[in-house]
Specification:
mainly alpha, two-stranded antiparallel ribbon, flat, Four Helix Bundle (Hemerythrin (Met), subunit A)
């Protein structure tokens, strides 16, 4: 009898590191699936995400925008070339401000799902788009002036990675904000009623 017990298999203990990774994998899988499923129950979630991305994207690319604004000089001999004044820095500031406000509007739009939150997000998106367009105008006026020889800047290296990333992030942010607002108007809760408490 003792000989038989000696040869019984002893269950191996699971490696604690493997157990942690297995648990983490199951958690991430369930979280991801829950996130995907939540889109079925909240039609405004995608609209909110699209409207919020520009605020994060513009901030993430701030180093590129700052480098571009610092390389622009529109004043020649006391006069501003092509614009009433060099507004590139000011337009960048207001574009970033409205982009950040758009994040709050997008969160409200996703949670409240009412027309008022969509209109508020539309206003902040419109501000971001207007100031973003004016920012791009300043960039292209400067670039046109350099190309024509009217503006001479010693340290300007042309359309480098800073210019490309700055312009691309602004254009993509504007497109995403428009898409988010359009989806918001399509999917908002038409049965919403404000309750006074």
């Amino acid at each position: 009898m003792d000989d038989q017990n000696r040869y019984e298999e002893v269950p191996q203990k699971e490696n604690p590191v493997a157990k942690v990774f297995k648990t983490l994998g199951v958690y991430l899988k369930d979280t991801f699936l829950d996130f995907i499923q939540s889109f079925k129950y909240n039609d405004m979630k995608l609209a909110g995400i699209l409207a919020a991305i520009p605020g994060f994207a513009l901030g993430f690319f701030l180093t590129f925008h700052a480098s571009v604004v610092n390389s622009i000089t529109l004043t020649i001999g006391g006069k501003t070339y092509g614009l009433p004044f060099d507004w590139s820095g000011m337009m960048l500031f207001f574009m970033m401000l409205f982009g950040i406000l758009n994040i709050f509007g997008a969160v409200s739009m996703s949670s409240k799902k009412n027309l008022g939150s969509v209109i508020a997000t539309t206003i902040t998106s419109a501000g971001m788009i207007i100031f973003g367009a004016l920012y791009l105008v300043a960039l292209f006026v400067f670039f046109g002036g350099v190309s024509s020889g009217a503006i001479r800047v010693n340290n300007f290296k042309g359309m480098d990675i800073n210019w490309i990333m700055s312009i691309a992030s602004v254009v993509v942010s504007m497109a995403l904000a428009i898409a988010g607002v359009i989806l918001g108007f399509i999917n908002y809760d038409r049965t919403y009623e404000k309750v006074d408490r």
